[in-house]
Amino acid sequence: MNLPRFSLPGLELARFRRATITRLALLAVILVPLIYGGLYLASNSDPLSRLTNLHAAVVNSDSPTTITGLDGKEQTIQAGSDLVDELTGPDAAAGFSWQKTSEADAAKGLADGDYAAVLRIPSGFSKALASTGGDAPERARLSVTTDDAENYILGQVTNTIATTIRTNVAAGTTTNYLQNVYVAFADIHDSLGRAADGAGRLADGAQQADDGANTLVVGLGDLGTGATRLVDGTGKLRGGATSLAGGTAQVAKGATSAADGAASLATGLDRLRTATTGLPAQTAQLASGAGAVADGAGRISQGADALATAANQLTPALAGATQLVPLVDQLLTQARTLAAASPDDPTLATAVTSLERTRQALTDGSLDQVAQTLQTRVGGLATGAKDLSTGATAVAGGAQRLAAAAPALQQGIAQAADGADALATGTKTLATGSRSAADGAAALATGAGQVDDGASALVNGTSQARTGAQQLADGTQQLADGAGTLRTQLQDGQAQVPVYSGDAANARADVVASPVTAERVKEHAVDRYSDGLAPLFVPVALWVGGMVTYMVLRAVSQRALASTASSYRAAVAGWVPGALLGVVQAVVLTLVLLLAVGIESPNPVATTAFAALIAVVFTAVHQCLNALLGGVGRLVALVLLVLQLTSAGGTYPVGTSPSFFGAIHPFLPMSYAADGLRHLITGAAGGPVWLDAGVLAAFGVLALAVTVLACHRRRTWSLAQLHPSLSL
Amino acid sequence: MNAVEASGLELRAGGRNVFSGIDLEAPVGSMVVVRGRSGAGKTSLLLTLAGRMRATSGGLRVLGEELPGRAGAVRRRVALAEVRGVNDLDDALTVEQHVAERLVLHQPWYRPWVSKDQVAEQIARVERAVAVTAETGADVPALRPREFVSDIDPLERMALGVVLALIGRPDVIVVDDVDSLRRTEDRRRAWESLSALRHTSAIPLTVLASCSDTSDIRWHTGDDRILIDLQDSPATEGAS
User: ipTM, 2 decimals?
Assistant: First the structure.
C-alpha cells in the first residue's frame, strides 16, 4: 500500500515535531481557546449565588417602639433588631453574609472594600413602621449603601438584595398587624357613619315624637275640658234618667193602676151593663117609685112639716116622745121601705140610719139631746124633706127622664163597657209599656250613672293622661336633645376616624402597600455601565497593547545583549521604547474614552496618569515575559490576560467567583490597576489609588528586575539559540 | 600577559561535539583566527571565548578572568562585531542610529539618549581609525552616517560591526566569519584592517576572528597570530 506519507498540511505541522518546545507550542495553540473560554466562563459561572462569600455590614440604629393594638394590648415593635436577626440568622437569604457592626466599622469597611454593602436601619425605623396606622403615616426607610469605587456591578446587584430585604420586612409580623389596623379603620368609619345616620334619624323621630307629645298634651287638655263638660252632662243625664226612671216607674204604676182601674171599670161597666140591663125597667119603676117618693116626699115634707110642727111641739111633747116611738117605727119602716126601694139612695139609707139612731135615741133615753138635735135635724129634716121632696120630685122628674134616657144610657154603658174594655186593654198595654219604659228608664239611669262614672273617670284619666303626656313631651324633648347630641358626637367621632381620599388616600395606600422603602445609596456612584466597566477594560486594553507592543518591538535587543554594556542597560533599553509606546497608548485611550466615548472621571488628569502608569508597568511585565521566555512569553501573557480578566473583580467582586480566582487575585497587577482606576473614575478617596499605584510600581520594578536577570542569562548563548528550531 | 588561555576546552550539545580539545594561549594584542567549515563550531568557539557561551568542560581564562564564573566581567571587556544570529545589525536603522544605540547602551541608565554631537564624535573617531588602517593599505571605505544598513555593502557592514564593537572600548574584539565577504579583495582589506586595528589605541587590542579559508590573510612579520583549525581538530597551529 502506498499511503500518502507526506502532504502540505502534514509538512507544515511536521515543523513542530523536531523539539519538545515546538510540540508544546502546538499544545498551547490547542489549549489557548480553552484557557480563555474555560477560565472566563468558570469565573463567571454563577456570581450571584456566591454573594454570600461577600461580607456586608448591617448597622442598626433603630430603637423599639410601643403601639397599642386593636385588642387594646400594648405591643412592642422592634423591627430593626428583628431585621438584623433575620439577616444574620441561619436562614438568611438576603444576598450577602451580613454582620452586625457599628457605624464607624461599617463606613470604614465599605471604604476599604471589606464590606460589599452597608445596610443602615435608621433610628426611627420601628416608629415609622408603627406610624402606618397613625395620623402621619411615614415610610420606614432603609438605606443600602454600596461603593462603586469598589465595584460597580455589585451596586446594581444590590438593588435586588435591597428589594429582597424590603419585601422581607414588609412581610414581617409587624406589618401584618399594622395592615389589620388599617383595614379596620374603614369598617369603624363606615359603622360610625351608619350609627350617626341612625342617631340622626332617631333625633328626627324623637323631635317628631316630641311634637306629637306636645300636640297630645294640648289635645288632652281639650279632652279634659270636654270630659268635664261631659261629666256635667252625664250628671244631668244621670239625674234626668233617675227622674225619668222615677217618672216612668210612676207612670208604670199609674198605668198599672189605670189598667187595674180600667179593668175594674170594664168589670164595673160590664156589671153596670149587666146591671143596667134592667135599668129601663127599673128606671121606669124608679120613675114610678120616684113619683111615689116624690109623693111620699111631699107627704114627708108635709109630714116633716107636720113633724116639725110636731117636733116643735115635741119638746113639750117630748115626754110623750116615747109615744112617738111607734110613729118612728112606722116611719122607720117606711124609710126602710123607701131605702129598700131605693137602696142606692144614700139619703134614704142615711135617713134609715138616722131613723134607726133616732129610734135608738128615743129608746135609750137620750132623746133630750137628740130631741134637741132632732129638733135641729127635724128642722133640717123638714128642710131636707122639703129638699127631698123637691129632689124627689126632681128625681122623679129625673127618673122619668132617666127612664126615658135609660135605654140610651144602657146603650152608652154598653159602649162605655166596650170602650172600657179597650181602655183596659190599652191601659194594660200602657202599663206593660210603661213598665218597660220604667225598666228602660231604670237601665238608662243605671247607664247614665255609669256614663257619669265613666265620664268622671274620663276626666280623671285625661288629667292623668295629660300629666303623662306632659312627661312624655318632656321625655321626648330630652330624647330629641339626646339623639341630636348622639348624632353630633357620632359625626364628631366619624370625623375623627380618618377618612382618606384623593392624594392622601393614595399616599396612605402607597405607605400601606409598601410600608418600607429601601433607599439605595451608591457611594461614588457612576452613571453608566461603561463607566463601571472602564476600570476593568482600560487595563485589559493596555495589557493587550503591551502584548502587541512587544510583538512589534524586541523585548531586549540582541545587539544590546551581545554588547559589552551592562545587563540592566540592555533591559532598560528594551523597556523604555515599549514604555513610551504604552504611555502613548494609555493617553490616547484615556483621552478618547473621556472625550469621545463619554467616560466620566472627576479627575481626568490623574486618571490619565494612572492609565499611563498601568501601561508602563504592563510593558515592563510583557518585556519581562518576552525577555525571560521569548516567544513562549507571549503565550504566557495571553494566559495571564484571561487570568487577570477573571480575577481582577472588574465586573462582579472576585469573591463571587470560584475561590481559585480569589486566591490569585492579589498576585496579579490588573487587580490593582482596576481598583485604582475605579477609585479615580468614581472619584473616591485618593488613598487607595496611591496604594494601588505603589503596588503597580512594585510590579513594574519586579518585572524590570526579572528582565535584568533574564538579560543576564541571555547574554550567554546556547547552541539551540544559535540555531533555533522555532521562532516565535 | 595572555588575553586568552584555554586548555582542553570542549563544548558538547545535542549529543555531538561542537568543538573539543582546544588549547590556546593568546597574548594581549594578538590575533586569533579560527578556521573551519561551515557548521564546524567556529561561532560557538568565538562566543565561548567571548564569555557568551558556556563550555562543557576545559579551562578558560580571558583577560585574567576565570570563566565561566567571571563571564560578566569578561563580557564587559570583550566586544562582538556583528555575529549573525547573535547581534545582527538592523537593516531598518542607519549607520548613525546604530552608533547612537551603542552609545546609549554604554551611558549610565539615567541618560537614555545621546546627542547628535556625540554620534558625530564617534563617527569622527571611526574615521580616524579608518584612516589609520588605510595607512596600512586596508583602504576600508568611510561610513556614510545616513545610509541604511540594508543599503551598505558587506565590507562596510563588517566595518560598522567592528566600529560598534569598539565604541565600548573593549580589550578584545570578536569578528565572525570574515569569509562571508564574497569578494577576495574585501576579505583581504578586512584582514588588513583588523590587523592594523590592534594598534590604534593605547592598550593593544586582541582580535578573535573566524573564517573558512585563511588564504586571503597576509601574514605580516611580527604579527602575533594564532590559528585554530577546527577542520582538523585538534589541529592547533602556532605561528610566530
Answer: 0.86
